[in-house]
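Sanity check

After download, print the first record. It should look like this:
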Amino acid sequence: MSVNKILKTLRLIEAQVKDYIIPSVTRVSKSKDPYRVLISCLLSLRTKDKTTINASQRLFKVADSPESMLKLTVGKLRRLIYPVGFYRNKSKVILSLSRRLIEEYSGKVPGSLHALLGLNGVGRKTANLVLGLGFGIPAICVDTHVHRISNRLGWVSTNNPEETELALQKIIPRGKWIKLNTILVSFGQNLCFPVSPFCSRCDVYGFCKRRGVGKSR
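Expected C-alpha cells:
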C-alpha cells in the first residue's frame, strides 16, 4: 500500500473515531506531566481503560509526583489503584521507580528512550508513549491494537510490536507518530476488534486487506 493511501486511510479512521472517548493515557496526557503519563501507562498494562482512568484520577488526587508518591505506604497505594491488573506488584514498581527518579534524575522523568528503558517496569511501549504524550517527542507506541490493525490493514507484515514500530517509522510521516497510537487504539477499542470486528460499520473497509479476519459483523 502506498504512503498516500495509508495517510488517506489514517485520516478516515481519525474522522470516524473523533467522537469516541479517547484512551485513558491520552486523557491523562492533557496535564502535560510526563510523570503522570508514566504512572498511568504502568497502571494501564493488562487493565481496561475505564479502570485505568478511575485509578489514575484517585491516585493523582493524593500523589502526583515522585516525592508525594513516596509518602504513601504500599497498602495505601494498593487501595488507591485497586482493581487495576497486578495492583500489588504495580504498587511496588511505582514506589521503586519514584525513588529512583528522585535519586538519579532529580525527581524528573528522563526524556530519552534509552533512559526510560532503564527504569524498572518500563518497556518499549510505555517508553514511547511517555516520549510522545509526555514530552511531545515523536515516537510510535505499538501496543496490541496498533500491531493488529497495522497488519490487518496491510500497512505492514510483521510478527511482533517492535518489528511493527520499525516498519511504521518508514511509512508514517514523523509528524503523525505521536497521535497514531491514540487513533488506532480508539479504532481498535470501538470497531476493529480482534474477533468479530464491525467491518459493516468501518469507513476504511475498501482499503483494508482484512488480514486475520474470520467472522465479522
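If your output differs, re-run the checksum step. Summary of this record's structure: Residues 24-135 form a domain with the Endonuclease III; domain 1 fold (CATH 1.10.340.30).
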